[in-house]
Amino acid sequence: MRRPLIGLTAYAQQVQYGNNDLMAGMLPMTYVRAVHATGGRAVLITPDDPGTDVLESLDGIMFAGGDDVDPAHWGAERHPATEVDAARDASELQLMRAALEMDLPVLGVCRGMQVMAVVAGGSLHQHLPDLVGHANHQAKSGTDPLAADAASYGRHDVVIEPGSAAHDLLGSRLTVNSFHHQSVDDPGSFTATGWCPDDRVVEIIEDPGHSYALGVQWHPERTTDLRVFAALVEAAARRAGIGSYERIAA
Amino acid sequence: MRPLIGITTYVEPASWLVWQDLPTAFIPQAYVEAVTQAGGRAVLLPPDDLDADVLRVLDGLILSGGADLDPGLYGEAPGPLTVSRPERDSAEMLLARSALEADLPVLGVCRGMQVLAVAAGGTLHQHLPDVLGHEKHRPAPGVYGEHEARFTPGSRIAGLMGDDLRIHCYHHQGVAEAGTLTVTGRTEDGLIEAVENAAHRFVLGVQWHPEVVRDRRLFGALVQAAS
């Protein structure tokens, strides 16, 4: 039985390793390992303007975290703290649009959730500290806010709307890690179903009209709680007609 | 729909912007650009050795450059300067063997050519300066060695390269025995620079780095074979 093939959007980014400094198509292995740990096979989709034809080969797709979406895409002026990734915007906005249109199972993580909202006609807050008066959603890079000995900085709860798909998947409340300075303001045609209880920042969006279209503002791939990845892989398997993943209706 | 070309990736601790030393799957963007410019659609294949099912959706495969192969794969003990990546080795040997079995078009670049040679039953030189007595294939860190290659008349690589025989090399290991592959190119010092297998639709390995110049001759031929 083959594994569902899950595309992961990747960066085109200047990286350093050893003594090398190069422009690379790349993605942290945490995303790859999350897909493999939940039964999928990951391939990376580098930013590529010419089209969305790659979606024909995939069973599901995850949009990864990264830099900010250019506010021009929802008709706003750029905030001084906004740092856009134009190459990924160009590629991911069209991939997201096409993936939703063909009802490919979609998971959006952090920036990926924001891309979802923008494609759905929504908008973002460009710099959360301006809105909520604190920077608790932006943990220091390289830290693990969920580690036993970590300070609460970059860690907070999410409360989830009863009756939502996210609630079926994650229950009514969980604690998450947080690495962002932007957030969803208007989810467009998506529905917000999870929030940070301290400041009402949107943490989950979904669209029940799709087989699986879920966005989360935190980084599950950096934790041991991979339920949103497992659900993506399962939806991808169902779409691909891969039998062992079929759930028997009660 | 463009031909879908899978490219194997490196996995190394990498740093970018504020992030430091995170285990990262990556490939020099030059490979991706070379595929895109040749009319293909690249997807990157992080190492995974559970199965080679991903080949089902691919029209062509690029085995990319990188660290040394584990000499255990060709029955030798590692030399003092050999540095390997077991995770890539097992994943790429599986992909290479499965791609050959499925007769999928394959281009092996540098380490990728060495993967092809070992999958074909060949062996490698673990440190070329010990064998050749010079460092012209990797003159200094980050510096490509420029050579003029000699190709077997009538071979695929001779036909693709035409009159411009300049190549850019960056490696300290090389193919010693090409196994069931045919050697079709060498540098002036006799080192194997190109291997192919005419029994397959498209199996080509080159020891140099054609992606550096987005060489349309080679990447175009792969994409065409994959179409």
Please provide the count of β strands of chain B: 14
- CATH C-level class of chain B: Alpha Beta
Helix content of chain B: 25-40%
Mean pLDDT of chain B: 96
In the residues of chain B, how many domains can be counted? 1
Helix content of chain A: 10-25%
Describe the model.
- The complex is a heterodimer of chains A (250) and B (227).
- Chain A has 250 residues and is an alpha/beta fold.
- Chain A has one domain (5-126, 182-245): Class I glutamine amidotransferase (GATase) domain (Rossmann fold, 3-Layer(aba) Sandwich), CATH 3.40.50.
- In chain A, 24% of the residues lie in helices and 26% in strands.
- In chain A, the strands form three sheets. Chain A has a nine-stranded mixed beta sheet, with helices on both faces.
- In chain A, helix 2 (86-101) crosses helix 3.
- Residues 245-250 of chain A have low confidence and may be disordered.
- Chain B has 227 residues and is an alpha/beta fold.
- Helices cover 25% and strands 29% of the residues of chain B.
- Chain B has helices at residues 29-37, 86-102, 111-119, 128-132, 156-161, 216-226, and strands at 4-8, 10-16, 19-28, 41-45, 60-63, 106-109, 123-125, 145-148, 150-151, 166-169, 174-177, 182-186, 192-196, 203-206.
- In chain B, helix 2 (86-102) crosses helix 3 (111-119).
- The interface between A and B is large, with 41 and 43 residues.
Give the SSE layout.
The complex is a heterodimer of chains A (250) and B (227).
Chain A: E1 5-9, E2 11-17, E3 20-28, H1 29-37, E4 41-45, E5 60-63, H2 86-101, E6 106-109, H3 111-119, E7 123-125, H4 128-132, E8 155-160, H5 165-170, E9 173-177, E10 183-186, E11 191-195, E12 202-206, E13 213-216, H6 227-240
Parallel strand pairs in A: 1-4, 1-5, 5-6, 6-13
Antiparallel strand pairs in A: 2-3, 7-10, 8-9, 8-11, 11-12, 12-13
Helix pairs in contact in A: 2-3
Chain B: E1 4-8, E2 10-16, E3 19-28, H1 29-37, E4 41-45, E5 60-63, H2 86-102, E6 106-109, H3 111-119, E7 123-125, H4 128-132, E8 145-148, E9 150-151, H5 156-161, E10 166-169, E11 174-177, E12 182-186, E13 192-196, E14 203-206, H6 216-226
Parallel strand pairs in B: 1-4, 1-5, 5-6, 6-14
Antiparallel strand pairs in B: 2-3, 7-11, 8-10, 9-12, 12-13, 13-14
Helix pairs in contact in B: 2-3
